[in-house]
């Protein structure tokens, strides 16, 4: 897969020991991580909740990929993802989620991000490694499989 670009992941947007009291709390934490790295403005977070209320972003294997609605595009400064790991799990409408990969993208950028994430999540070993990761550098390595890791 040499044609794929590395996912736009700022290591500061990886949080591996998060806990959430609800699905919406987990989504808000993802949104906050994207705000904290300058990828989105605050209003984007509400569009992530809005998206979840219209269609679930749970994708299986304990993973959800929350992202905003079309109306949220104006709040995106640059494409980015965040990875939050919830070791205690979060009830996602009856499913247990342990990893949330939040997405923010301008234009149609979310399509590329979702396609590249799907490649990772469809590989059972890589999906398991992501769910079990305890170090930021491991997450970065998993999401940048071409060896284009950032320096620690």
Distance between the termini: 25 Å
What is the H-and-E element order?
Answer: EHHEEEEHHH
- Mean pLDDT, to the nearest integer, reads 88
Q: What portion of residues belong to β-strands? A: 15-25%
Number of helical segments?
A: 5
Question: Helix- and strand-based class?
Answer: alpha/beta
Q: Can you summarize the main beta sheet?
A: 5 strands, mixed
**What's the shape?**
globular
Helix fraction, binned, reads 25-40%
The total beta strand count reads 5
Strand ordering within the main sheet: 1-4-5-3-2
Keywords for this entry:
152 residues; alpha/beta; 5 strands; 23% strand; disordered C terminus
Can you walk me through this structure?
- This protein is α/β, with parallel strands linked by helices and 152 residues long.
- It has five helices and five strands.
- The C terminus is likely disordered.
